[in-house]
Amino acid sequence: MALVLLRSPGEMGADIALGSAQRFGVPLGFGGPHAAFFATRDEYKRAVPGRIIGVSVDARGKRALRMALQTREQHIRREKANSNICTSQVLLANIAGMYAVYHGPQGLRSIAGRIHRLAALLAEGLRQAGIELSSRHFFDTVRLRLAGRAAAVVTAAADAGYNLRLVSADAVAIAINEKTTRADVAALIRLIAGVDADIEGLDEQLRRADPFLPASLLRQDAILTHPVFNTHHTEHQMLRYLKKLQNRDLALDHSMISLGSCTMKLNASSEMIPITWPEFSDIHPFAPLDQAQGYLQMIGDLEAWLKAITGFDAICLQPNSGAQGEYAGLVSIARYHASRGDGRRNVCLIPKSAHGTNPATAQMCGMRVVVVDCDESGNIDVADLAAKAAQHAASLACLMITYPSTHGVFEEAIRDICAIVHQHGGQVYMDGANLNAQVGLTSPALIGADVSHMNLHKTFCIPHGGGGPGMGPIGLKAHLAPFMANHCVQPVAGPHRGQGAVAAAPWGSASILPISWMYIAMMGGSGLTRATEVAILNANYIGARLQPHYPVLYTGRNGRVAHECILDIRPLKAASGVSEIDIAKRLMDYGFHAPTVSFPVAGTMMVEPTESEAKGELDRFIAAMISIRNEIHQIEIGHWPADDNPLKRAPHTQADIVDEQWQRPYSRQQAAFPLPWVAENKFWPSVNRVDDVYGDRHLFCSCGPVDESDESAEFNAVNHTGVKT
User: Could you give the residue range(s) of every CATH 3.40.640.10 domain in the chain?
Assistant: First the structure.
């Protein structure tokens, strides 16, 4: 918000700028979720971790958006992974972006100007009353020198309804926001200085000359000049714009999203209601705990329930994503070894099938990754594990393992695997990405894990939000509990006092915890167990129905999968030239989001239906996949050319269907309405297939030029520039 008024970091010579978009309409929420961002100069863009959206063109030459740059560590060699930045706060970034769209540059200047003017009124009123200011220049935060009175002033302010920051015995800091009023400023001056300030007179004085923001620091260039930030300034305009964007998203409100390893389950409306309550959304991350007793009760309930579900002795709710949970867990392991004089233990065993964040996290913790082989059935090669554990026994820190495995099967040797690691002095970290197949049937601690993270945005129903917010709390056994993350600003009671933090707030993104609390409270133990059983049943139903058409790559000894199954597309590609990407694009024409593509095995599709989907929806997905297989057969027998068929041309847009120059070997009906029920709830893709090669060669990651006939530039402005503002 300050940069609305101040010169940009880039203009002042910075190469990298970090910040938070929380001030752009995102609630404080007792710590989050918020969207942080960092921006960098163009020459450093290919070193950026995370994901950046860029502009390309589609098959019809229309401007289209794509993932232009991404750090997804599963795409590179495990031992070279170095960034575990995975979950992005996309939902919060969009909130911040829409805040900028709605208010526009003039509205934002008005808001920022109001914030600073009120802070300046407070500072000048206190200065004239004899209170010493700690700094001459500021935007919204005034720091005072109070010579031993700081604690008394903070207490008196709290009694009057104001939370001030106690910096030291002699200093207090006061932050102003756009909801602060002149009456608040007058009350604070009276409380601190004991005088009644002339607010009108102070305001007139500051209008003539503001000594707290020198002209040399003020921004002179225009901001947010793209039309999207200068158009939608009434509620009707804004709602219609949001609806237009929503119509371009193939989301769970349209059909099943079977992304493997993502657990895209129902986010029930009843679970979402509490996060709108101001009692949860409007509390500061470091508010006095006697003002957060409701939060603390909910957090206590959730910790107790997660202990019961996972079998662990302690829960840390601080990590904001699964990847951050991995980091917190491995830090706890490293601290534990160091406390025993075993600081030399730095080898982390990781199966070849692991999610890419596992080796990246180990690298970030200063560990050396040793990859463990998998057998032809997709299980960990126990003999290879035993050999490498023995080889590195003196330096073995831990094993990182996912259960059920990333290959979608329950590894029968899992307890033996944990025992081997423990035998050689290591700890077992269990990646909780697939916890949805364990809840109520088994638990990480029962299996033998020492620490594990839980994806609350998967197993426990927090929405994915297009990539965030997420929560990745960790559970730990008693011997690791003293080494889990704590917080220096707001320490949490327990054996881990004095430990450092892994996130900005003590309980992470606390304001979305009510979603998981509601889910567990409403489901109860028997409901959670039933959900796990149905999730496994649904995956096996899909696998069994599709096995005659698409080989299921990995199964257990009894021919079953866990909660997801991997379909092997490689034989079809060899016979027809149709790839997993072609099938993924074609599924859009049937109204379905694609499963996970080429992870964890290249040339495959991983399907996870979750327990939320009824049999009718599963049958529609199965029918779509079988219909696509029949289309592939038409290519195999030469009925359609290998380069001109519904799969290679997918997805089909309305522009395709109304094109008077339709000259394809299949009908418009086959293209857009391949099965009778598709027309009842047709999803129209907004672009044709995006040209990835063009996008790579013409990397463009900012607002596109304005073209009224091409709204994708407008869409890009919201999702990219809005985040960077």
Answer: 2-75+698-724, 313-508
DSSP state letters, 408-473:
SS--TTHHHHHHHHHHTT-EEEEEGGGGGGTTTT--HHHHT-SEEE--TTTTT----TTT------
Burial 562-591 (b: 16+ CB within 10 A, else e): bbbbbbbbeebbeebbbbbbbbbbbbbbbb
The mean pLDDT value for 583-609 works out to 96
Neighbours of 276 (CB within 10 A): 11
List of residues 6+ apart from 198 with CB closer than 8 A: none
Residue 714: is its pLDDT beyond 60? no
- pTM for this model (two decimals): 0.94
- Express each pLDDT in 209-231 by its tens digit: 999 999 999 999 999 999 999 99
* Residues 247-291: tens digit of each pLDDT: 999 999 999 999 998 999 999 999 999 999 999 999 999 999 999
Domain boundaries for CATH 3.90.1150.10 within the chain: 100-217, 525-681
**Does the domain at residues 313-508 carry the CATH identifier 3.40.640.10?**
yes
Query: CA-CA distance, 653 to 689, in Å (whole number)?
Result: 10
Q: Is the peptide bond before 319 cis (omega within 30 degrees of 0)?
A: no
- What architecture does CATH give domain 525-681? Alpha-Beta Complex (3.90)
How many CA atoms does the CB half-sphere of 146 hold within 13 Å? 24
CATH class of 2-75+698-724: alpha beta
Q: Which residues contact 93 (CB under 8 A, 6 or more apart)?
A: 21, 35, 37, 719, 722, 723
Q: Pick the residue with more confidence: 709 or 306?
A: 306
What token pair was written down for 132?
């010493």
Q: Which residues pair with 171 in a beta bridge?
A: 145, 168
How many other CB atoms are there within 10 angstroms of residue 437's CB atom? 23
Place of tokens 């305009």: 237
Between CA 10 and CA 507 the distance in angstroms is 33
> What amino acid is encoded at 275 in this protein?
I
User: Any residues with CB less than 8 A from the CB of 689 and at least 6 apart, and which?
Assistant: 58, 59, 585, 649, 650, 651
Please, which residues bridge with residue 374 across strands? 380
Cα–Cα dist 458/462, whole Å: 7
Topology annotation, domain 100-217:
Aspartate Aminotransferase, domain 1 (3.90.1150)
Question: Measured in whole angstroms, how far is the alpha carbon of residue 236 from the centre of its chain?
Answer: 29
- Overall average pLDDT of the 137-145 stretch: 97
In the numeric block, which tokens belong to residue 584? 């993924």
Give the whole-angstrom CA distance, residue 111 versus residue 1: 9
Strands annotated E in 151-236: 165-168, 171-175
How far CA 393 is from CA of 79, 129, 208, in Å, comes to 19, 69, 73
